[in-house]
Amino acid sequence: MNYNLSPGFTIRLHRRAITDPLRRVLVSGGLCCLALLAGCKGKGKEKEGKGGGPKVLQAEAVVVKAAPLSSVYQSSGTLLANEEISVYPEVSGRITAINFKEGTNIKKGDLLVQLFDSDIRAQIRKLNAQRELQIITKGRQDELLQINGISRQEYDNTVTQIAAIDADIAAGEAQLRRLQIRAPFDGVIGLRNVSVGAIVSMTTLITTIQQVNPLKLDFPVPEQYNGAIRTGDPVHFTVAALRDTLKGNITALQPLADATTRTITMRALVPNADRKLIPGAFANVFITLGRNNNAIMIPSQCIIPTTRDKKVAVLRNGKVDLVTVTTGMRLVAEVEIQHGLQPGDTVIATGIMQLKKDMEVKVTKIRE
């Protein structure tokens, strides 16, 4: 028969040993003594485990240092022509001349398209002839009026007729200008959609004109960055067609945020003298929101998230102190600490899920 008293203590008895009353008493007493010894030994081990103090954790740490940090926001933008129009005729008519070549530079005021205007020019010549006659009549009436040879009313009628003819001539010249389509600004003209002899109306698209130097760059930014970006700030961007990083300057900000995306559209002006950039191209935009020469950066893995805030384990006098911190900008593997840490603090970087306040920690390595 076996009796297990405690780990490491086993007594084996034979059935014959318990038949004798005296031996039974001796055996029972021996068993009691052994049980007491085993219990005392177990209690001695537990006390030793509790009295040995808290377990020392070995971990790696980071010494906090201040370093310069630039806050850069990346956005997606679109290049646009600085000025752009679609050319439509003001009146219906027949095209008699097209004076531009597709895709070439034009100057402000250049005659692009001429519509038929012979009838209006003939009407203007007729009005000019009538005006000359009335001018001669008025000269004669000036002499007669001085000797009272005509009434004042007759003289005033002649003056009025001259003024009416002048107004008709001005109206005819205005009609002539409407039949001439001229460039409103310097730029590059697009493809033409009409030919000489075509009958066009006010809905007929003739061509387009774009001013490509400089270009406009429109891009959205979150509304929380509205105060961090101002007119005149530099903007850097890249396009797929070029390897270089290009630069522009912000010229305008949309005064209201988009209700759907909660973003604000900003516009930059980009020089394009060599015409390497084209309107409509996609651009990756980089905006510097600010620069902090004394930013505190620690590895992202050092942050201990809680339900209410974020904490960092700081080693002070060999023991853990859980400090509440406020984080700022995040990089790929680091996070900015705005409040809670000072340069020179030692932050534990490994085993943070096992840490407790006032726990002893032995640093095995200081990370750079």
Structural description of this entry:
Helix content is 24%, strand content 42%. The longest helix is centred in the first third of the chain and has 31 residues, at 21-51. The protein folds into 4 domains: 2-50, no CATH class; 57-68 and 293-367, Beta Barrel (conserved putative lor/sdh protein from methanococcus maripaludis s2 fold), CATH 2.40.420; 75-79 and 209-292, Efflux pump adaptor protein, beta barrel domain (Elongation Factor Tu (Ef-tu), domain 3, Beta Barrel); 87-200, OB fold (Dihydrolipoamide Acetyltransferase, E2P). Strand 1 and strand 2 (9-12) form a beta hairpin. It is α+β, with helices and mostly antiparallel strands. It contains 3 helices and 21 strands. GO terms for molecular function: efflux transmembrane transporter activity. It is found in: Cell envelope. This is Membrane fusion protein (Multidrug efflux system). Residues 294-352 form the Multidrug resistance protein MdtA-like C-terminal permuted SH3 domain. InterPro entries: Beta-barrel_RND_2 (IPR058792), MdtA-like_BSH (IPR058625), MdtA-like_C (IPR058627), MdtA-like_HH (IPR058624), RND_pump_MFP (IPR006143).
